[in-house]
Amino acid sequence: MKRIAVIFWGMIAALIFFSVMKDETPFYVPAKWPKPYYDFSQNPLSKEKFELGRTLFYDPDLSRDSTISCANCHLQYSGFTHIDHSLSHGIDGKIGTRNTPVLINMAWQQFFHWDGGVSSLNKQAINPLTHAKEMDNRLDEVLRRLNQSSFYRSRFYRAFGDSVIETASLLKALASFTVSLVSANSKYDLVKRGESSFTNQEKSGYQLFKKYCASCHQEPLFMKNDFKSNGIALDPTLHDLGRMGITNRKEDSLLFKIPTLRNVEFSFPYMHDGRYKNLKEVLNHYAEMHEHQPYFSKELKKLNRPLSSNEQKDLIAFLKTLSDPEFLFNPSFKYPKNERNASFQKN
Ligand code: HEC
Ligand code: HEC
Is 259 in the pocket of ligand 2 (CB under 6 A)? Predict the structure, then answer.
């Protein structure tokens, strides 16, 4: 009897051990956060998929001329955006029409791209792979290259149970990486957990933020799954009408996705077209709101007086508490050192 019990509990322990090992990806839902939008039942997370997605994310061979990987535009230390580039910079040095957004807490995001033109993270990667100014490849060519590689065939087999690589598994592998990029360990989070405290300046910035900014940049994600105008004027050269380009509705003209402000200290330049070089310029914009501006969102009406330069400084001090070095330097998100990348370096 005793032996049977030992074997029984041994098996249970082994099952628990293996299920924990299998789920060991960096994704987690921080305490008190809302439920993610991402439907994990369509693409259950696993360590194998995450690692495969990470290798693909850093692999320039997915682009037409094998020079541009996802990480060329989405760099980890800037919150996965292209620091210092106002408009995206892709293959053959081609310049796109929008600023590369950060990839932070994607699991809570309902719409993708500045105009929300993409509604599923599991399909998003088709766009950069085939975009003429980004990676400019054809899907059949990407799949041909991957299916020729024994490295990838064995990794796809481990991740999806099939060594034949198809569009769906390629896109799901990439999504397994991007959905796992959780940032929730900034000073702001420590303060909320009672593990740190704000300086007086940060405290005053937080009060102003809650009054004037948080209706759109909602805590704790500092974004909202909605499209608004924050009052910036149309750029006459780019002529980007935002959400209206997708819906064709006049009332959606100049509305853009409300971006997260987590790690905003490092994700400059700002806005869908990168028009502001630093946070000072952003705050200068919000400091001078006028109700008679076109497309003036009702949330901005509370800003019915100019913000003083001290108030702007306090707000910037608060925004900097959203920086999360653990996320920006997390070794699990870095360029992976594996056989695949080793073989690149030899070529
Ligand atoms: C040439 C630069 C460039 C490359 C390369 C690139 N991206 Fe992007 N990425 C962008 C830009 C620009 C946008 C915003 C597009 C828009 O709003 O129309 C974007 C948007 C995204 C988004 C949506 C983010 C959001 O908040 O809406 C995801 C996810 C993403 N890219 C993942 C990837 C993946 C995965 C790859 C590689 C397969 C990749 N990107 C390659 C520039 C790039
Ligand atoms: C009406 C909703 C709304 C309010 C209120 C609002 N914002 Fe925004 N914010 C947006 C939208 C939408 C964007 C993106 C606009 C674009 O790119 O065209 C944005 C962009 C930003 C960006 C740039 C982020 C990036 O990654 O490029 C910063 C920084 C920012 N807001 C800070 C603030 C601060 C500080 C306040 C309060 C003073 C504030 N916002 C109030 C909607 C709002």
Answer: yes
